[in-house]
Structures are given as structure tokens and as C-alpha cells.
Amino acid sequence: MGTLVLEQAWMATTGSAVYEEMSERASEQALAALVEQYAPTLYRVAYSVLRQAEDAEDAVQETFLRVMKHRETLGEVRDHRVWLIRIVWNIVLDRKRRAKTRPETDDVAELARVLPAEGLSAEDRAAAAQHHAHVLAMVETLPAKEKEVLELSAFEELSSVEIAEVLEITESSVRSRLFRARNLMAEKMGRARQDRGGSNR
Amino acid sequence: MRENEVKVGEMGEAEATLRLIAKLPAPEGLVGRVQSGLRAAPKDARVLDWPVVAESSHSWLNGWVRGAAAAAIVCLVAGGAWQISLRMVPAGGGNATAAPVRVRPAGGFSSAGAMRTPDTLNGPVLKQEQKKKAEDVKKKGGSEKKSAEAGPR
Predict the structure, then answer these.
(1) pLDDT of the residue at A164
(2) Number of CB atoms found within 10 A of residue B13's CB
(3) Given an 8 Å threshold on Cβ–Cβ distance, is A156 in contact with B22?
(4) B94-127 burial code (b ≥16 CB/10 A, e <16)
């Protein structure tokens, strides 16, 4: 009788172990599939904020490490893409907050390295990098809320509803912030152009 | 109208830059590096990680053997503990109580053999005694008064 009880206990233990092993393998495979599918998108999101290849890659790695820690909740997630973008977005914002402000010259060097340069002379390439770095420096001066919406709206694959989900705000807030951001940017660019025109004269 | 066009152009310029950066491709080998990073990351330890046993026709035998082995281990541990408890002789209590040795700090001032004697405490005073004393004082005072009155005559 005692042996039978013991045997049953052992059977139950090994049965649950098999189930655990199987679910573990399944979650590992699901995670691998997520990395395969979304790592490049997450990298682009991270790079657009951090503008440093190594930092962006670290942010992607951290995102998936966080996902791995909570892999048992993967099944509950409705839209993995938006969910992952929200995680990486929070990571990069946190990193950027802690990092020192990058000088514009750093951006120029980095952009000259990464921007497509087909059919451009070295001089044109340098000028384009300088122009884009200048524009990005201006974007940095926008209020945080407007800047975040503007940066995310640059991703064509993200709709305003998805941007709202990433930022955890309403869609109408996304629209109004985007409107304000565009107006502010236009004003800043116009002023900068006038200043340049004045100094050239 | 013209001003509006310029505004749209400037705005488009900023968004064009952001779009250009958003479209930059991810570096080659990114997926592989992330995958290997995840494999190297420590996974949360499980409380019970029993090895998976393949189902066989002798599984009941296997279970019985395991149960017997577990029971034998329990018996061994319990027997050992019993043996140890039998051999242990309780130490008898000492008659003398050891006073803690005061360790004098190296250097500094010494007490030069001076001993502190505590002040003697005043014992409790009984109420009756107090009353008696008060009456004595009163009587004494009364007789003194009488003699004083009789004195000058």
C-alpha cells in the first residue's frame, strides 16, 4: 500500500516535469521566433532615439531579456509588435535620460557613417550629415511629449492607434501632439533659416 | 499662401530626416547576437528539476526501488542521529560561577586601586513611626511653651 502511494507520487512528479520541460521548450521557441521577427524593428526604434549602434543593440538585447524573464505571460499579449516596441521605447528613454547630452558633432560623425551615400561625393555626404544632425538637434529642443510623438510617427509601419498604445495615451492626444510638434518644428526651422540668411548677408 | 508652402516644406524637411533615420537597416548578424545573448543569460532556477524518466515496462519496479532507496536513506539518517544522542553525556553543572574577567584597555589611566562604595540608601520610613515623631515634637513644644510662660514669674 505504502509502495503504491510512493510510486504514484513519483509518477506525478515526473509527469509534471515532462510538462514543464515541454512548456519551457515551447516558450524558448516562441522567444526565438520573436527575436527573428522583431529584433530589426526594435533596433531601428532604439537607434532613432539613441543614435549609437552599440547602445541601440544593447537596448534590443535588454528588451528580449525582459521578455525572457516574463515569458510565461507571452500568451496573454495581444499584439507582440506594439508590446515589444513599448518595452524598447521605455528602455531607450530611460537610457537617454541617464546619458549625457550628445554634442551635435557626434551626430554628424555617426550620420556620415550610416546614411546612404550612393552617388554622393564626400563633400555632399558631409554636408548632408551636417544638415540632418542640425535638424535632429532642433528636434531635441522640442518638448518631450511632442518630440516622442514626432519620432514615433517617422516609423511608417506604426499607425496613430499603435503610437497611442506605445505611449499609453489616447489617439486624439497623439494627433494633437503631432500637430503641435509639426508647428513648433516649422517655426524653429524657419527661424534658423532666417538667422542663416541674415548672417550670410 | 507662399508662407504656408514654406512652412510645410520646413516641416517636411524635419520629418524627412526622422524618416531617413527610421528607415536605416539594422546591422547584419543582429538576430544571431541577440539569440546567443539570450542563450548565455542565466535562466531562473527551478525549485524542483527532476530528470525526465522515459516510460518503460519496468517503471513500477523503478519506482519501488527509488522508494526503497529513499526509505533506506531516511533510516540511516535517523539511526545515526539516535546513536549520537545515546553517546552524548550531559555535562554536570559547576559549583563555582565564573565571574567575567574585566579586560583593562591597554594604556590609559588606571584606577590606582580606588574602589567605589555606593551611597547607603535611606530605608523606607514607616507611617506610624513618622506620626509618633510628630507627636513627640508637639509634646516637646507644648512643655517648652509652658515652662516659658511660668519662667518670668
Answers:
(1) 96
(2) 17
(3) yes
(4) eeeeeeeeeeeeeeeeeeeeeeeeeeeeeeeeee
For B20-67, the pLDDT digits (tens) are 899 998 999 999 999 999 888 776 544 443 444 444 445 566 678 888
- Which pLDDT value is given to residue A126? 85
Is residue B103 one of the residues assigned to a domain?
Answer: no
Q: How far is CA B26 from CA A48, A53, A93, in A?
A: 11, 9, 19
| Residue numbers in B near A10 (CB within 8 A) | 63, 66-67
How many structural domains does chain A have? Answer: 1
Which residues form the domain of B1?
A: 1-25
Total domains, chain B:
1
Asked whether the beta carbons of residue B67 and residue A10 sit closer than 8 angstroms, the reply is: yes
Tell me if ipTM is over 0.95: no
Give yes or no for A139 touching B (CB within 8 A): yes
Query: Rounded to an integer, what is the distance from CA A131 to the centroid of its chain?
Result: 24
Residues of B in contact with A34 (CB under 8 A): none
Residue B149 lies in a domain: no
Query: CB atoms < 10 A from the CB of A83, how many?
Result: 18
Contact A48 B67 (CB under 8 A): no
Answer yes or no: is B10 within a domain: yes
pLDDT digits (tens, 9 = 90+) for A149-190: 999 999 988 999 999 999 999 999 999 999 999 999 988 888
Mutating which of A5, A21, A43, A141 best tests the B interface, going by the most B Cβ atoms within 10 A? A43
The answer to the question of residue A148 being in a domain is: no
Within-domain flag for A13: yes
Domain that includes residue A37, residue range: 1-99
Q: What pLDDT is recorded for position B59?
A: 56
What CATH number is given to the structural domain containing A47?
1.10.1740.10
The pLDDT of residue B15 is 87
Q: Do A60 and B30 touch (CB under 8 A)?
A: yes
Residue A72 has pLDDT above 80, yes or no: no
Note whether residue B20 is domain-resident: yes
